[in-house]
Amino acid sequence: MRAAPACVPLWLSLAAAPLCLLALRLDARLDAVRRLLTDAPLVDGHNDLPWNIRKFLKNQLRDFPFSEDLRNVSPWSRSSWSHTDLPRLRQGMVAAQFWSAYVPCSAQHLDAVTLALEQVDVIRRLVERYPRELALVTTAQGIEDAHAAGVLASLVGVEGGHALGASLGVLRALYLLGARYLTLTHACNTPWADCSTVDEPGRIPILGGLSNFGRLVVREMNRLGMMVDLSHVSVPTMLDALRTSRAPVIFSHSAAHALCNSSRNVPDHALRLLKANGGIVMVAFYPHFVSCSETASLHDVAAHIVHIREVAGVDHVGLGAGFDGINITPQGLEDVSRYPHLLAELMARGGWTEADLQKLAGRNLIRVFREVERVRDELAAAGEQPIDDRIPEEDIVGRTYCRMPAT
Q1: What percent of the chain lies above the pLDDT cut of 70?
Q2: Helix H or strand E segment including 340
Q3: Using one digit for the tens of pLDDT, what is the confidence trace for 41-70?
Q4: Number of folded domains in the chain?
Q5: Residues of the domain holding 265
Q6: Considering the entire predicted model, what is its pTM?
């Protein structure tokens, strides 16, 4: 019997021995992934746990046992929307999590700003309750520092531009409270941006992308150092934002339109523009975005990652599962503990070096974040001032909410 060829140690070079890499058993690949994630932080772009805290507990954190396995705690154990707790985050080696300060579309023109502030507040209070496990982070370097310290970097992303109440002052206030990205729309248009649903058959765009005020929102986000998140927006809105932004943009939880033609996904022509912009698509796990059906698998998610890499490049793809905001998950990616299995699957496919996998896991997002901060600093050095403009009254005619008249 001929002996198997000796492999160079995987940790020394994943690229040096592709045949050995492919032959590794799953447990060996998982060991390699865990070593890789010890050196490089895994960053997830979107988790809706804060909304579940509101939904189940009305934001009463004294009743939230985050340090327990919630699969054994009611009402979380009965919910198909629950995938996140501290034990499973540790098991999944998640180093940094963008927690979503989500505001439902039903709040638009009503109490959306209040809800956004309350959701940012619950994220900040959750971090304060677990100081040995969590750290509030507002910078790219903060992600690296938290990873080195062995605590979970907790970042705030505001989901839904209607959370601003069409006010740049609210945008600035949210930044001061720690928000580091804003998803320009959710599943509803704002007075200044079209959402992805207008791209669906039979739907008619309202604005055809961003309005003039919408472009000011993007410019002010650049000035602040807040990432522009294009998940949920229409394709024309994507293109307008890519043309307007002076910094890289992100898709915090989207997938490839070429593999699943959901309006929530990113078409190839936008992926090519994203490469030129320097931004990143953080791949979502929701089966309706991955397989355009009720069922999907880890292999389907890996296919989206590979496609985005092929079109935009390895520097422009990351992870944004959307856990706790989805009620069905891919087989093999049932909760936040399963990220290593996804990286192990890519390792088995071949063509991924150690550096590639580290980029996917989190280094790409950190690079984008640093570039957003660099643009902010350049604009500050050039004397860029806050934008004082109000949304034109004609843009909100007929809206059913009260506004102080312009004076």
Answers
A1: 92
A2: helix 339-349
A3: 999 999 999 999 999 999 999 999 999 999
A4: 1
A5: 23-384
A6: 0.93
